[in-house]
Design brief:
CATH superfamily of the largest domain: FAD/NAD(P)-binding domain
Largest sheet: 7 strands, mixed
CATH architecture of the largest domain: 3-Layer(bba) Sandwich
Number of domains: 3
Low-confidence stretches: 279-283, 510-519
Structural class: alpha+beta
Number of helices: 17
Radius of gyration: 23 Å
Helix content: 25-40%
Distance between the termini: 12 Å
CATH topology of the largest domain: FAD/NAD(P)-binding domain
Length: 527
Amino acid sequence: MSRIETHVLPRPGSRERLAQPIRAVVAGGGLAGLAAATILAERGASVTILERERFLGGRAGSWDDTLVDGRSFEMERGFHAFFRQYYNLRALLRRIDPELSMLHPLEDYPLLGPDGRSESFAGLPRTSPWNVVALTRRTKTIGWRDLVRIDRGAAMEMLRYDPETTYERFDDRTARDYLDSLSFPAEARRMLFDVFAHSFFNPEDAMSAAELLMMFHFYFIGNPEGLVFDVTKEPFGPSIFDPLRKYLEGLGVVFRTETAVERIARGDGATWRVSTAAAGDAASRPTEAEANLDADAVVLALPVAPLRHVIEASPDLADDAWRERVASLALTNPFAVWRMWLDRPVREDRSPFAGTTGVGMLDNISVYEKLEGESAAWARERGASIVELHAYSVPLDATEAEIRDDLRAAMQTFYPETAEATVLEERFLLRRDCPAFAPGSHAKRPGVETPFDGIALAGDFARLPFPSALMERATSSGMLAANTLLAPYDVAPEPLESVRRRGWLARRRKRSRAASASEPAVAGAGR
């Protein structure tokens, strides 16, 4: 059986393009919105993208900034890893760079713990169960006696992932409860599980155990590509979003940045009217035609809070059950990004990226001159370093001063050479806009489809019919949203690839004909 599945969703179509153009509005210029716009425009739709920020990319975007010495640079909302099983994201990127030359691989994904402890994912077999066996034999945190004490039944759930039974059995439990049930030695749990669990912005005691098991399956157990990943050679704007904008403009897509969607209302006939926020003084206010766009198809590819605002302000979207699903979406704890331009270099052998655990709030350290050319040029000229610290799930009551003190102390613990460094410049971001995946939320989570013809949702909050996460989940949802809107016009959908939907030991349950009909159509498999 193939380790990759190709899904034709929601159903096959006979046309390559629309027989007649339709008007499409995409609310949101992040990965979800850009992916949706790409599929719609390639198939002949007339697309307008509305984005409230002045830059594209959402949480993966970058924007221009200036250092005190006058040098311009691109600031981002933190490091992003481009894993090799991000098949749909990579398919999107190949539109602008067929060879993916904007990416380069990291040799390792090291994990750092207290007292000099470390783990490495370099050199592991790519596929399960051999990757699990190799990691277990290599790690110093588990002895043979420890293996006897581990709850093998709980551990095997990672190999039994199933998109139905796993959520039925584990969605009401917390990720912490599941990790506790494994009975791993404390150090092994910290080094092998805590770093991974924290990477999804949700704290363990407020995250669904089923969602965590899906992440294990997507990133490790069911992933045929290995856990080491790629990174961009330059900041995300010039690497990805500027070229993607140019590509889409070549397809006729219109971009309106610094434009927020306010509400959706019924238009004339079968169309929708998308109203945007009026901003500025009277002279700069948009005309009625600019502020209100008529559309045959609308993709709401917005973050959770703006999406909820739009739905609440749109009484024509009158389906109480669906509105409750959208209203149930919540935000997880804030995350912090602290980039520092230091007056001296970190040690030469430091990894470009390292996950951290067991020392305060810090979840990883990035050395940016080893990641991006822009930072490398600055560091060479100064004989210095640019270091970025991340805290993925900051306590709600933590102040900025407390976060800074905690992160700086942790950095100096892991990289003692930074203790005497002077911070020449810094950017500190504290944001709370990542979706929560709380226990019990899966059944209520909205998917891409809505009760309204011509409207679809997209975003990394969406419930998808195959395993996915983070940037890949956003991109996949956008492509699926476009497919959904094109299906009534008999237009062939964009094929979506994923890792296997089920784990190696998942039992295939007998389904009724109705249940089987809801399964994703698998058009083919391979690679």
